[in-house]
Amino acid sequence: MVSGPLATVIIPTFDHGETICFAVESALSQTICDLEIVIVGDGVPDFAKPAIERCLEDSRVRFLEFPKSTRKGEEYRHKVLETAKSEIVCYLSDDDLWLPNHLETMLGMLSEADFAVSRSIACYPGGAKECKIWWSDVEGDAGKRLLAERTGPPLSTGAHTLAAYRRLAEGWTSTPAGIQTDLFFWNKFISDGQFTLRSGGLPTVLKFCSISRRGWSNQSRASELEEWSELIKCPQFRSALISNTLSQLIREKEIALLEARLSEQSYRARANELKAAVEHLEARLTDTDENAKIAQSKQFSAEQELNRLRKSKSVRVAKLFSSIPLFRTVVDSRKQAD
Questions:
Q1: 70: domain range?
Q2: Per-residue model confidence as pLDDT tens digits over 167-181
Q3: Can you tell me the distance from the alpha carbon of 306 to that of 260, in angstroms, rounded to the nearest whole number?
C-alpha cells in the first residue's frame, strides 16, 4: 500500500500570475512539512505559466493544467481528490497567504471533526492598521445563517478529511450561477447532518480581497503579497497583528452591544411615552363617558319635568322652561322624533 502525505493543499489558479508564488511559499513554510501542493490550472494563459513553473522547483508542488471551465474549475478539484492519498485536504487561493501554523491548526481541528474552517484576517490596501478579523462559524445556527445569507468562509480557510469528502453524496461540481463557488461546496458539509463541524479560534489566514483591489495590475498585487510575505516571517509581527485585530474586533463588538442597549433603552422610553399617552387618552375618554352620562341623566330629568308641566297645562311655564338650553334640547329632539 502506497502511503500519501499528511495533507493535500489545492491551489486553484487562472490568471493572477506572480501572486501564486507567494501563496505557494506560505504553504511550503508551514510548521507541518509533510504535504503536497497541487496547483489546479483553470485555463491558465501563457503569461501566467512562468510563475507557476518557478513554484515547481520544490518536489512537493505539482501543476495540473485543464481547459477553462464555466466557473472556477471546481470539477477539476474533484479529479485531484479522486486519486489523493492524504489524510486531510486544505485549500488556498492563489492570492492569499497562510500564517505558518495554519496547517497545524487544521490538523488539530480535523482530528475530531470532518470539516473545519479557520479564522482569517482581511487585509486591505491601507496596510496592517486596516486589517480586520473575518469571523465565520459553521456549527449549529451559525452554519444555518451562512446557508440563508449565501455567504461564508473564504476558500483559504476551509479544510476537511479525505474520508469525509468521499462520504459526500456529491463532491466538487460546477457551481450554479449566482452562488459563490466556495460556499456551494462548503454547504455540502454544513447541510448534511452526518458531518462533524469545527470553527477555529485565532486567525491563521491572510485574505486579500479582490473587490478592494479593483483596477490593480497583477504586478501590483504580487508586490503587495511580497511585502506581506516578509512581514509574517517575523513572529513578533504575527503576534502583534493578531492581537491588534482581535482587540479591534472586541471594541467593535462592545460598541455594537452598547448601541443595542441604547436602542433598547430608547425603545423602552418610547414605549413608556406611548403607554402614558394611551392611559391619558383612556382617562379623557372615561371623563367624557361620565360627562355624557351626567348630561343624559340631566336631560332625562328635564324631560320628565317638561312632561309634568305639560300635563298641568301650564303652557306659559312650559314655554319659559323651553327657553332654557337643556329643556330646549329635549323639545328639539322630540320634534325630530315626531
A1: 7-233
A2: 999 999 999 988 889
A3: 68
